[in-house]
Write a structure and sequence with these properties.
single chain; mainly alpha; Helix Hairpins
Length: 88
């Protein structure tokens, strides 16, 4: 079972690397916002996989806080970017 967890962490790391590249090279602000949201979701998934690997649900609060902050941050950033595009 440990191999499955390591493979999952590896795939999450590759996805986070690709998301970070899109975050740095994204042609528009909305592309960068979506890449940042992807990285936040991958961090939350990494926390969940880590909890499953250790069989310890002690970090559920951390998982909920990261997910909530990611959602609120992405909605706020999109609304801000949309307002900036409207005034151009």
């Amino acid at each position: 079972m440990t191999v499955v967890f390591w493979l999952t962490f590896g795939m999450l790391a590759v996805a986070a690397l690709l998301g970070t590249i899109r975050l740095l090279l994204g042609p528009s602000t909305l592309d960068r916002i979506m890449a940042l949201e992807l990285v936040v979701v991958l961090v939350a998934a990494g926390i969940a996989v880590g909890m499953a690997a250790m069989r310890d649900p002690a970090n559920v609060t951390l998982l909920l806080v990261v997910a909530l902050l990611g959602f609120i941050g992405s909605v706020t950033a999109v609304r801000l970017a949309e307002g900036m595009e409207r005034h151009r």
